Amino acid sequence: MFNMIKMGYSRQLNGANIIQLPKNLDRRGNLSVVEEITNIPFEIKRTYWIYDVPGGAVRGGHAYRNNEEFIVALSGSFDVVLDNGLSRTTYSLNRSYYGLYIPKGVWRQMVNFSTNSLALILASIPFDPSDYVYDYEHFKELSNKELEGSVS
After folding, report:
1. Range of the domain at 56
2. Residue 148: what pLDDT?
3. What is the CATH number of the domain that holds 43?
4. 109 belongs to a structural domain
5. Domain tally for the chain?
6. Is the pLDDT confidence value at 3 over 70?
7. What is the tens place of the pLDDT at every residue in 124-152?
């Protein structure tokens, strides 16, 4: 089972964390792999990728109620800006053997895409339009309610 302590699990920003993937070095070319539960803390139910992003474009701009994601820059680079309603952190992805784990309930935007960048996203649930929160003010209200509910 996935060990978040071993993988450097962080409480900062709801557990979002950079995870280093296995790297198999070979003179013929290197190979990295990601396996559900072993390398990331969820079963993979959907895979998609983002490419050909025009200069200055922003992707994301939403949160998920239930979906968890793992994002890898397979080629090029980009930044992922995460926000939990109280603080904001930017993660720069530019190596194919590092990925960013994003738990549910975190606002995300992807910015600063380099030319020919390719983002691979692994998701914990199939596509579900009702899982998306697109309004940032509504997201902050939901985040505050969740925080209030966790205080005894």
Report:
1. 12-150
2. 55
3. 2.60.120.10
4. yes
5. 1
6. no
7. 999 999 999 999 999 999 887 775 554 43
In a domain, 112, yes or no: yes
Mean pLDDT, residues 11-38: 92
* CA gap 149, 126 in Å, rounded: 28
21 phi and psi angles, rounded to 5 deg = -90, 160
Catalytic residues: 62
In a domain, 1, yes or no: no
5 in a structural domain: no
Report the predicted TM-score, pTM, of the whole model to 2 decimal places. Answer: 0.87
Query: What is the reported pLDDT for 143?
Result: 84
What is the C-alpha separation between 117 and 73, in angstroms, rounded?
7
